[in-house]
Each structure stands twice: as structure tokens, then as C-alpha cells.
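Progress note, project year one: complex with WTA.
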Amino acid sequence: MSEQTLSNLMHEDRRFEPPADLAADANVKEEAYARADSDREAFWAEAAERLDWGKKWDQVLDWSNPPFAKWFVGGTLNASVNCVDRHVEAGNGDKVAIHWVGEPDDDTRDITYAQLKDEVSRAANALTELGVQKGDRVAIYMPMIPEVVVAMLACARLGAPHTVVFGGFSADALASRITDCEAHVVITSDGGYRRGAASALKPAVDEAVAKTGDLVRHVLVVRRTGQDVDWHGREEGGRDVWWHDAVDGASAEHEPEMHDSEHPLYVMYTSGTTGKPKGILHTTGGYLTGTSYTHWAVFDLKDDDVYWCTADVGWVTGHSYMAYGPLANGATQVMYEGTPEKGRWWQIVQDYKVTILYTAPTAIRTFMKQGREIPDGYDMSSLRLLGSVGEPINPEAYVWYREVIGGDRCPVVDTWWQTETGQIMISPLPGVTAGKPGSAMKALPGISADVVDDDAKSVGNGNGGYLVLKEPWPAMLRTLWGDDQRFKDTYWSRWPGLYFAGDGAKLDEDGDIWLLGRVDDVMNVSGHRLSTTEIESALVSHPKVAEAAVVGAADETTGQAVCAFVILRDSAGDGGEDIVEELRKHVAKEIGAIAKPRQIMVVPELPKTRSGKIMRRLLKDVAEHREVGDVTTLADSTVMDLIKTREGSSSSED
Ligand code: WTA
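Model obtained:
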């Protein structure tokens, strides 16, 4: 992180004290930090008591074989029972679980906890009918419709780990995930609505399934848009089954089994520093404890709140803070199918009297650009708390969020966490912590974070370094699917006993934490994690490309943007007029539209050290239109001049 960006992060020095009424009535008070410090395991055991268990655990934490943790050892529970049945049994069956808002105007559904319980039970019975058994993996590739939550909970009920693949990923990406976790069943829909039009999903599933041989036995399809689909029904020996045929007629009675606390709940693939996505494995008891506790603590959740997390269910935020955390807490929430269009969000806040909004800085910056007149046109006085996640929030965006969306009365909680951590780790507590724009403040009670130098020594206040986590926490990933060694190597090998998150951070004079972005080859584009290596692999898989280097360049709206430098094969000549567009499309096909480079430069050489390592730092200088830094370690120091002369000549931006 350059000094310039750092000072940019630090220039706002206002402090925002917690509102007095919120502080007085807060779910979690200051004493929680000391209590958790004095007995961490007792603290998390108390959080676990908030759930319903079939059998209570014998041991809170087994850390005898690090880094493989076991939480609530010997306990049994069912995640779907905790998210639905128990609320119905407690007399809250008529409470709305999900206010679902479709993208087309007036396309809405309110689903109560009782209805959700019936639907999850029917889906569980239907999946059983399709042969899904405990331990089997089920892939889910769906838009933001209620059935996606039903599908996840039905899998959880059966103990069949789901792997939800973001609907914006390509058929290839879906196929590689299906293959990696050997899923025999895929749940999808004919399509979904995006920006006013129906877009198809089923064709990508067909393509993915065709690439995976005989692996997939059934494809369960929700009819959402009614568009024509290629259909290969079971009558003709095909795999396709309509959701309404399989689920609607199934029994709403389903006797749930209690699963072991460490039974796998789901696998979520995320980008790492190498080309192959990593299957992050989360298990049941600890994950549900961590997500439900933090959802209750960080958002100060009350019974009458209307909570709205805008994340897509295809990312971890949609898992922890749309599906599992809020539902385990019996919350009422909004789920919206569409994208952040002008005014539509604020209409939803007004209509449903949303009290807690959780979103990403990239959305806030987009709204800032559109101007405050738009949100100013709506009544958003219901809001009382705002959350941010996914990337560092710059102070300007924080202050705008607070003032314009939050009417200068709502605290902003900037929450740092990862797919791997499963739960929020660093965040203000809204009734305790005075907010500093741009800082995620401190580790939550029960969490132990530090900022260290290359030798794993704490850097101390006023200094920067690497963010590490020092003690196990309930929702931590247990391993990478099928790859224990890679799990150890990736997160635990840099410094023995410490979990290295991959983020740089700084402690200010008060010891509060400021996240400074990734220090590895992971980019963060609109709060979505992308790997430079993965995009490079996609580029070199194109027949015209010999070599590629990808960097994340600072971008005003999306945080970072993908910039690629490619060397063409001799046989490709100059690549042809449309080479840049051709390559961008190729990346979209290989990975998904979100990975499309904003800019591609065709260059004659790439800057390499004498040992052949690409110096991305220098390419970043070019991509960010900066003076190119120190080139003395380059094998050929004239390379950068060659690249500079190409700048602008073959780039594409849209
Ligand atoms: C980044 C998303 C700064 C960070 C929940 C992390 C953040 C990566 C914040 C994980 C934040 C997430 N401030 N950076 N509040 N939240 N990040 O796995 O670099 O998609 O390592 O999880 O996002 O991204 P992931």
C-alpha cells in the first residue's frame, strides 16, 4: 500500500460516539471484552447456548492438533432446525422471515417462519427422493430468490453440504466446482432478472454438467422467468426435474436428524493466490455459533428490527449474514433480487421500514457518484444502524453513508472478515465503540487479532504490518475441501501458530486497526475476491496469448479493477483489431463477467527479475498512471520503457 493511499485513509479525524439510547440498551456492552479475555472458551460456550442443541457438547474446543480445530466436541444440532423450526415452536411462526423483493416492480413475497419451515421440509423430502443422503454434496447455482435459501436449509437439514456458486460465474467455473466437490445434484433455475431483463442460468448448468461426465445425476430447476429451456426430463432418461414437480407436492413433515457439531455444513469456493479456487469448508456448531452471535452483537439485533444485507447469496456474506446468522436469530429480513439501481434500494428501505442495512463500500461509492438527491427523495428515518463489508471503506464513503443514508444518526459498523473466518472478526460494537471513519476498530470479544512484522513480532501502536489471528474461533474454516496440506500451507505456514489473513493493516496511536488491503496476489473488485493468477491462467489458455500478468489497479468506484498485460504468440501476429475485446470475452467465459479485465495492454515484454519473477509492482505503477518505480532489479531495465510506449495504444475501458 502506497503512502499516498495511507494518508488518504487517515485524513478524516472525526469520531462518532455511539447514540446514547443505543448504548443504554445495547445487546453487548463493554464488559464483554474483559469477560472473553478472562475465559475465551466460556465466552463462546455462552454464545453457543443461544442455539438449540440435540445433545450438549462435552468439550468446547479441541485444539490438540492445530491448525485443525474442533468446536463443541460431542455436541449435536441441526442448522435448519435452528434457523426455522425452533422459531415456529417458540410461537413466532407468523413472524416474517423474508420480505422478498423481486427485480420486476410489484413482484414480492413475504415468507413467514412457519411457511419457511414447511418449504424447507418439503425440499428436504424432495432431495431425499432424488437420492441425496447425509454427506452428499449439492451444488446450488441460483439467482436471489427465496428458493435458494430454502435449498440451502434443506441441504443443511439432511446434512448434505451445499456449495453455492455465484450465478455470475461461468459454466467452466461451475463445472470445476462441481467436479472438485463431486456433487451429484445441482439446484438451479431457468433464469433470473438482472437490470430489467430475464437472463438465463440453465444453459450454463447444461454446459457445466456436460463437462463433468456422469457425475451429476439430477438437476433440480426452479421456474423463475418462464423462459424456454432445453429440457431433458427423467421420463426420457434425462437429469432435469422441475422444482415445482418435486417440491410442491412433497410432504411438509420432515423429521430432522441431529448432526455432529463438526459435520460439514458447506463448501464455499474462493480465490486464492494460485489459479485453482479453494474450497473453504465450514462445519455446523461453531459456524452457527459464530455467525449468530456476531449478527446479534454487531448489528445489535432486536426482535422488531428489519434487517437487510444486500450481498448475493453466492458469496460468504450471503451465507453468514443473509442465510444462517439472521435466520438463526429469528430476524425479519429483506432479500432483493436485483442490483443497486438508482433509487430502488431507498424505495425498499422506505417501503419495508428497514432498520439495519449491511452493504459494501463499492455500492456506497456508486450511490455517491449518482448524487445525494436520489436518496434524499425517500423517507429513510427507519434506519438505525449501517454496516459495511468486503473492502476497506474510505473515509469519504463512510461519512457520506453516515450522513446521507444514515441521517447523521446511525452508527456505521465497518466489519472485517473473510470467507475463511466465516464470521465477523474485527468491527466496532455499535453501543460501545466510537466510530472512526475508515477503521474497523478492534477484534470482537472472543477474537484475538494482531498486526505483526516479518518476524511475527507485534508492530505496536502507530505502525503497519500483517494482520494475523492468534487464537482459534468458532466459525473458522476447518480445512480446504480435500486438501489439508494446502490448508496448512496457505494460512498457517508463514508464522507457526498464527493464522495469516493475507491483509496488510496498521495500528493507530489508540491501537485501533486500519485495514490496508491484500498483501498477496488477491484482488478485491467491488468487494469480490479475484485471484490475479486465476485470471492470468484464463488469459494464457487463449491460443493467441503467450504470457500474461494481471494487477489490481486502484479504481474510484470498484476499489480495484483488473488490468492485464499480455504478450501475444508470434503466430498471432498483432492479434487482430479486436484482440482486446476477444480476450476480455475469453476471461468472462473462463471465469465470469466479474473477472473481465477493465484494461488489457498488449506488450512486447513483461518486467521480470533475474530469477524470472514478474514484477507486478511496476505494472501496477503503469496501470495506475504513476511514475514507474525502482527498476534496478529487473533483468532488462529497458522493458518498462517498451511497455510505457504501448500505454494507451491497445487498451479498452468500459
Ligand atoms: C477484504 C468477504 C477491509 C479483505 C467478507 C479480506 C475487508 C477479503 C473488509 C475477504 C473490511 C473484507 N475492510 N477489507 N471491512 N472486509 N475485506 O473472502 O482483504 O470475499 O481478506 O470475504 O476482503 O474477502 P471475502
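Confidence is low (pLDDT under 50) at residues 1-10, 649-654.
Residues 124 and 154 are 5 Å apart (CA to CA).
No further modelling is planned for this target in the current period.
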